[in-house]
Amino acid sequence: MKKTIDKLSLVGVGNVGSHLHQSFIQEGISVSHVVSRSKPSDALLKQSIWVEEVEKLPANQLVIVCVPDDSIQSVLSRIPASCPVAYTSGSVELQHLSDRSELGVFYPLQTFTKGKEVNMFEVPFFIEANSTVFASELFDLAWKISRKVSFASSEDRKKLHVAAVFINNFTNHLAHISKSYLTQHNLDFEHLKPLLKETAHKLETQDPFDAQTGPARRNDQNIIEEHLRLIEDPTQRELYRLFSKSIHQTYFND
Amino acid sequence: MKKTIDKLSLVGVGNVGSHLHQSFIQEGISVSHVVSRSKPSDALLKQSIWVEEVEKLPANQLVIVCVPDDSIQSVLSRIPASCPVAYTSGSVELQHLSDRSELGVFYPLQTFTKGKEVNMFEVPFFIEANSTVFASELFDLAWKISRKVSFASSEDRKKLHVAAVFINNFTNHLAHISKSYLTQHNLDFEHLKPLLKETAHKLETQDPFDAQTGPARRNDQNIIEEHLRLIEDPTQRELYRLFSKSIHQTYFND
Hints:
2 copies of one chain form a homodimer. The model of chain A has no long low-confidence stretch (mean pLDDT 95). Chain A has an 8-stranded mixed β-sheet with strand order 3-2-1-4-5-6-7-8. The first copy, chain A, is of the alpha/beta class and 254 residues long. In chain A, strand 1 (7-11), helix 1 and strand 2 form a beta-alpha-beta unit. Chain A is built from 10 helices and 8 strands. Chains A and B meet through helix 5, helix 6, helix 7, helix 8 and helix 9 of A and helix 5, helix 6, helix 7, helix 8 and helix 9 of B.
């Protein structure tokens, strides 16, 4: 029978865990216990009991596991058998984990930074579970803190994660390259920030295919060669070349 | 002797030209003539006289050339000899153009989209000219429409442009890849938009080096291999691999 989840425990209060903690509390869901190796913040301790071992979590109560992918299996194996469990990973497949009576996924597709406010109601959540009843319970729980909740298979969730890696991890790395390139040449990354902001802003309304500009889009080989000459770092140069090739393939069909 | 520029002509009213036109008018600078092959918008025609040939521009008045890089030289050669001229390119070197008595650069480091409002006062402008007096006049002109004006040599301007290509062109292309990957797998790019927004937002305050997350940052080879398996397109796979290598080199020093 479907239950309403109004009380849970969290394992891990890093970037994901600490934001989920805050959202649950705000929406009136009790986070009775948190598991963390180091002492959590005072604000968190006002709301939840800190335990250092997952074995000590209360029985029969949902546990949401917010730990790095490669620790999920070992954490799961130590959680009391009576607890339903969900984990927050984009890439770990449900069927690859040892079975429990209630096991599910509670994946927020967002980048979280400790101490930086995120509007959780805008964060897409993807739900999966080894029973339709538990999946539905997790869906309802996510719906209390977000207005963008979907069911997704492990396979689809992994593909969303691949796309997220392109959008977030690689974009961030481009900013790092851009900054280190400028710093290396005694130029200030601050000059680029309005451009970065507008680039993202534009993509909220415009299709990236239509928004593309620049030397590769115009097939301006002179500028491309000139830019390659101005990049000393071999990996950065290889990235510039590969992007130019990829953009060319996208627009000139070769 | 240094003059105050309060009247000018524009060649090209595409993305850059149309935004400059609007900003100049707003700040009380008269744009007496615009050159464009096709008829400009009615709004623009209320402010400026449309001519189809640069040869017909009024003498002795500043001309700002907002055309693609590879057309600048041919446009320059047809502008009346008495006109001071500036162009808006990031990559064309001043010394590579045939000399005129007053020739300069008026480079706004931003991506412009026709019809999409940009706060010009936040746009960094980079100024260069073949005389200090003309450079100073262009600086003052830019200062009327922006609060972020600097002088920059052709070499520095080109490096800023390289960095801008990484930040804007390549980020935009990552969004395209992300979208086409999802579309190909019947998933909705809308799911990724909050992440894209937050990625850019985070970089306004956080150093990209510190903000980096993801499988490559954690050196999680299992996930990287799994993601590569899920990408069918060879160029996209090559980009994923190269980014992962570049992130690895950045954090693990090899």
